């Protein structure tokens, strides 16, 4: 059985979106067998909106299997919907809870 790395990347500041996405790109390139999940909440969701400066890299990463999840609490508090983001974005009820639950399952945690 081949070991698959599982990595969460925390995004709560829009100015760190490029750093987070490049970290995801490096993980995919460097580890090969890797599950990467970018968890965005609070101000971090702004860095992943449709038409943003990182759109091409986000599209590439999504095509390589990187999962992007948005916090529903944040979307609700900002009057945003999942339609404000690329169609491959998913939602979770709480970004913070997602980080905790995945770490309890053994996922590695990265906060750039």
What does this structure look like?
- With 112 residues, this protein is α/β, with parallel strands linked by helices.
- The chain has a single domain (5-110), classed as Hypothetical Protein Ychn, Chain: A (3-Layer(aba) Sandwich).
- The protein is built from 4 helices and 5 strands; from the N terminus they run βαβαβαβαβ.
- The chain has helices spanning 17-31, 55-63, 72-77, 95-104; strands at 5-11, 34-40, 67-71, 90-92, 108-110.
- The chain has a 5-stranded parallel β-sheet with strand order 4-3-2-1-5, with helices on both faces.
- Strand 2 (34-40), helix 2 (55-63) and strand 3 form a beta-alpha-beta unit.
- Pfam families: DsrE (PF02635).
């Amino acid at each position: 059985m081949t070991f698959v790395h599982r990595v969460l990347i925390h995004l709560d500041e829009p100015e760190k979106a490029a750093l987070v996405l490049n970290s995801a790109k490096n993980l995919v390139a460097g580890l090969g067998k890797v599950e990467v999940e970018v968890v965005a909440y609070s101000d971090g969701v702004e860095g992943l909106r449709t038409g943003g400066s990182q759109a091409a890299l986000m599209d590439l990463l999504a095509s390589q299997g990187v999962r992007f999840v948005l916090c529903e609490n944040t979307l609700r508090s900002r009057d945003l919907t999942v339609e404000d983001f690329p169609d491959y974005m998913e939602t979770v009820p709480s970004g913070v809870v997602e980080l905790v639950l995945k770490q309890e399952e053994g996922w590695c945690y990265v906060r750039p």
